[in-house]
Amino acid sequence: MENWGWSLAFGIITLIVGVFLLLKPSLSLTALAFYIGFVILFRSISTIGFALDVRKYGSKNWGGLLILGIIGAIVSFILIWNPLFAGLSIVVLVALNFMFAGLFSIFLSIQLRKLHKSSKKLSADLVERYDKIMLEIREELDK
C-alpha cells in the first residue's frame, strides 16, 4: 500500500499510451500485438495479485478484480501467440482498455494514498489486535 506512487505513475503512462494508440492506429500491428500482449499480461498478473491482497483485507469486490485479471491474461496470450488476430479493431479496443486501465490505476492510487494516510493514525495496539483477529479468521476459514 505504500507504493501508491508507482500505481499512479503507471496509470498515467497507460492512459497516455491508450490515447496515442487511439490517435495513431497505423503502427505496426505485429509489434503492437506483442507489446500490448506483454503489457496486458503484466497488468493482469498485477490485478490478480491485487485482488488476492484486497481479499485479505475483507473486500467483497475482490472476485471481480480476479476475473478481470484472468480475462486479461487470456487476451494477452491470444495477442502474443496470434499477432495476426490483432487487426485494426483490436487496436481500438486495446487503446480503450489502456485508457480505462490508466484511469482505474489513477483512481486506485489516490484511494490507496488516502488509505495509507488514514492507517498511520491507528495506534500500534489497535494494529496488533487487528492482526491477531485477522490471523484467527484465516485459521478458522482454513479449517
UniProtKB/TrEMBL annotation:
Gene Ontology CC annotations of this record: plasma membrane
Q: Which domain of life is it from?
A: Bacteria
Q: Which InterPro entries match?
A: Acid_resist_chaperone_HdeD, DUF308_memb
Descriptive protein name: Uncharacterized protein
Origin species, per record, is Salegentibacter echinorum
Q: Please name the Pfam families in this protein's record.
A: DUF308
UniProt keywords (A-Z) are: Membrane, Transmembrane, Transmembrane helix
User: Transmembrane: present as a keyword of the record?
Assistant: yes
Q: Which PANTHER family match?
A: PROTEIN HDED
Spans through the membrane: 5-23, 29-52, 64-81, 87-110
